[in-house]
Amino acid sequence: MIKHPHTVTFTLNGELKTFITRPDEKLLDLLRREGYKGTKYGCGQGTCGACTVLMDGRAIYSCLLFAMQAENRDVRTIESVGTHEKPSEFQQELIDGAAVQCGFCIPGMIMSAEALMQAEDTYPDDIVREYMDGNLCRCTGYEKIWGALRRVLDRKEGNGVQGSGASSRPKS
Ligand code: FES
Ligand code: FES
Fold first, then answer.
1. Which residue's CA lies nearest to atom 2 of ligand 2?
2. Which residues contact 111 (CB under 8 A, 6 or more apart)?
3. Which ligand 2 atom is the nearest neighbour of the CA of 102?
């Protein structure tokens, strides 16, 4: 059946953009076909977190949202975080801590961490787990990712503790 094209307009990584879409197109599919391929397709069912983007500052699964639901919203993808030349603090810690294996989960992890750092001023482990527990990693066992994030958060909290949370895990 031929679908009638619709348009959707939203702010994407700071720029107002209009895209042609279909009523049944998911935001994840729109982003990827428009070249924002840092946002990954994992499960397509809202369980893995690989497709995480920010919408109005909150982490959402873009595989569950219809593209039309982004109308007038502020969407941020991994492409808005750091660059090869100047990675974000968390990206640098992931590199320095050898915390990335296949890397498929990492963009989603970074976006959930962005949501955390935008919304909270303090970062106790239980709060951090709440933000990060929607992101699964099939490779690393989480330890090094958690340690990398904990080092960033510890610095933000100003306690200067390096890797204080490295032994506590966001998931079992
Ligand atoms: S692809 Fe969206 S949660 Fe897995
Ligand atoms: S590094 Fe491979 S899924 Fe996380």
1. 102
2. 52, 53, 54, 59, 76, 77, 78, 81
3. 2
Range from 52-66, 69-83, 105-119, 155-169 carrying the lowest mean pLDDT? 155-169
Q: What pLDDT does residue 160 have?
A: 58
76 and 108 belong to one structural domain: no
What domain range is 12 assigned to? Answer: 6-80
129 found inside a domain: yes
93 and 69 in a single domain? The answer is no
Residue 149 identity (one-letter amino acid) = L
pLDDT for residue 90? 98
List residues near ligand 1 (CB under 6 A): 41-44, 46-51, 61, 63
